[in-house]
## 1
Amino acid sequence: MNCIIGQSGGPTSVINSSFAGCVRAAIDRGFSRIYGSLNGIEGIIDGNIVEIDKEIFLSKGIEDKLKKRPSSILGSCRYKLDEDCESAIYKKLFDFFAANEINSFIYIGGNDSMDTVVKLNKYMQLNQIDWINVVGVPKTIDNDLCEMDHSPGYASAAKYIATTLRTIRSDIDIYDIKSATIVEIMGRNAGWLAASSLLSEIGSSKNIVDLIYLGEMNYSKEEILQEVKDALEKSNNLLIVVSEGFMDRDKYFDGNNAQIHDKGFNHPIISGVGQRLKDYIHDNLSIKTRAIEMNIVQRTNQLISKTDSDEAFELGYKALELSMEMTNVVPVIRRLSSNPYKVEYASASAGEIANKEKLIPKAWLESRKVLEEKIVEYASPLILGELEQDFSNGFVQFVELEDFIK
Amino acid sequence: MNCIIGQSGGPTSVINSSFAGCVRAAIDRGFSRIYGSLNGIEGIIDGNIVEIDKEIFLSKGIEDKLKKRPSSILGSCRYKLDEDCESAIYKKLFDFFAANEINSFIYIGGNDSMDTVVKLNKYMQLNQIDWINVVGVPKTIDNDLCEMDHSPGYASAAKYIATTLRTIRSDIDIYDIKSATIVEIMGRNAGWLAASSLLSEIGSSKNIVDLIYLGEMNYSKEEILQEVKDALEKSNNLLIVVSEGFMDRDKYFDGNNAQIHDKGFNHPIISGVGQRLKDYIHDNLSIKTRAIEMNIVQRTNQLISKTDSDEAFELGYKALELSMEMTNVVPVIRRLSSNPYKVEYASASAGEIANKEKLIPKAWLESRKVLEEKIVEYASPLILGELEQDFSNGFVQFVELEDFIK
């Protein structure tokens, strides 16, 4: 009984916690060999496979170190399998599984990666393959996965954002002039991560975020300018959060970036709206402006939510367990209550997650006040607790793959 | 015996540690009233003055909280005093000092702020004012101040950069493709902070920074392109560090260069050199490129070097003590040895710091190897030790001025 684990799509700060959960479950459940596929399924296709050294994993505290190690330690890919389940790649994958007596393939990823899980299962069904189960583990900082209360990775990014907005506010407040600082936050079409910037208001004696624009909102550029003008009447240094997926009605803020697409899934590469909004405010109001793109640091920051890490581990563990009995499923978190925060684990069909996205509910967008109340209720329990990072030579040190493979 | 403290110029993560040192020394040395001027000397000019509550400061652990609180808590300014020491502003300042029986004015800032210290002293000399001493405390993440081994604030920014480059490396390595990630780092004309990115190589099994370009270096854009090509022969995902003060010989990367325009609005791109270097590499090599501007987060990050914080406190403390006997001086750090790291405190004339800048020595730029050896020897002792931040509600909480003023 052997298994193989892969990671796919954009990284998160807790994607290796899910990986550690898979490995730990495989050891606990008596799997003989535990493989890792480098760069998602490309590793299997190209023959880049590693085997976990179970003894080292258990004896050297690798599990805890993996929980603190941001970004996909197995590497990633954006490989999209052909719709046609008859292509040679499928055969190559299943030949590999058969040759290595692999009964479980666990794929940790977002909605694109679940597309891979679904297609492999479709191939298995078509070819009556029943000796292997292919199961997904959810991850994404975007929090846009359906069928679950929230996705692992989101909370650690939100924790980093809440903390960083506090430090940005402390910086921009020092000058007694009119200014606007625009902070662009990731999340693709979904505003979950940008909205979590409002967590920084908790317990603060002053406003942290003055204005917020999410992809789910409908604005003209003139309406935004009016809001900025109004806000400047009340305070000096504005902090404006904009989701990378935000676009004004007339697409004035579109930088033609939609023409640039990523190679695998052909999604438009979206970033730059913050810079454009900055230029627009500067050109129209002649105040000091600055654009800050939170960039990839928000998805691989070492400031990790313990709640997020624990849940990511649990989902990895459960995925491996599920794979011993079922296929084409994904373990998910369902919320029982927010206060006190209680969840249960369930499983969903991979097909209900693949290629779909969950946006912020319309009812939450009624007003800034409602949005803040809703997101605080929703996300504040998720960012609680910190993992203590290991420092050496004055900066954070991370475990690497070479430390625990054969 | 009263004193007043101000902060000026760009913030750092330890500028409030110096402030705490001043306040603590003033309490220890029996000053009656300890004032803070909001937004540098503008506070005195505009009448925005606060008074520290000494009892609260001592009883509520404010000193330790200030050490963990990035960015100038008194606010800042970039106010430049007239060369003409006869202007009404000078009179206003000294009228305030006299009316409030202030014997010590401590100004925490960089080379511009030391210009203020020098001018106030010049006015004092011209007008035979001997009842007040005006003393500076050095600070800047740029590390470009003369007369001292290093400046407080630099090390914490370097610590953040070393840590963040490790996480950025963990992120960019996940895809098995050719790519170039350009990270633009602050420092004005001086490359100290960008060079400290090489600290991230300490103890790493793989290269973190592939190429580095500092303002002190002399390159044509074609030479850079060749270096990028050569590096891509050896590895997939390049991490290229560029100092914000870097410029190629022909100034192609200058933001006013008419050849490079924003795609959406046809504005000349006025963001950093990192973005333009990214565009240049992308246009010439057609690989995946990404520009990351570390931005203001590097100067107000909550990841604080204990060594830096302790030294900043000590300099603040000593400045207040110096102000009881001398004027027109700045306490500075001199290094006795790097291994073991030993320093002594001395004082320098403010005039030797004002308006001057210290660049990386030419001898350090001989080769990448030499630069790395030199900067590691120089900066690695400075980033040691961490201040444990206070978390509440899942993110970092900072002390505010309202918590300890009357």
Note: Chain B is about 35% helix and 20% strand.
## 2
Amino acid sequence: MQTLPLSDNISVESYTPGLHILAELKNINPDPLIDFSGIKKFLYHQIELNSLTALGEVFHNFENGGYTGVICLTESHLAIHTWPEFGLVTLDVYLSNYRKSNDEIARSIIKHTIEFFNCSQYNLKEFKR
Amino acid sequence: MQTLPLSDNISVESYTPGLHILAELKNINPDPLIDFSGIKKFLYHQIELNSLTALGEVFHNFENGGYTGVICLTESHLAIHTWPEFGLVTLDVYLSNYRKSNDEIARSIIKHTIEFFNCSQYNLKEFKR
């Protein structure tokens, strides 16, 4: 039996571009949730470490504390929003697999971000999109 | 029995910032998936129509067709990625409810984007984060 190359087995119906992980990080010390400078540096380090490609970003600190940030990647995007008054972060890591599987990289970025915030209470959901 | 004001019933444990809808739109005519100019105008019209506040954006057309775009909002973010070769779009609409409930606005933006692409085959998942 001949083995078909993988590309012949990808149909319009079955193509799934990649893994999207949604995380809610809870009961975090509010200090690193007030200003984006630390997490921005951390996320760009993760991008470099994992050979991802950033296309651009938006980061914004809110007047009363808390920030929102999105980094657009050729592989899709990272997004973070914080509520220091509730010790809460929502984090999205969505990496497509155009050239290679990035699933383990997505999980690694989530894991290291949880460690960055020294967070012990979190929810994770994984979606193959 | 006295009715407590809503704010007294929100604890650190129970606070859920808003609704995130993940959509996969399939079998779309590839033409509007190649260049972001049409969808960018459409999304900013939705933002204005629904009195949301944009903080910034990243849009990028890929050399071989297809684009990626993220608009950062005070209410969280919109994100779109396209694969014209597969007639595929993944769309995220995540709106927090800091000042008022934006759940119906999130659903309305999804609905109108599906109509924009004249798409009849799609998956939607809703998450209260």
Note: Residues 61 and 67 of chain B are 4 Å apart (CA to CA).
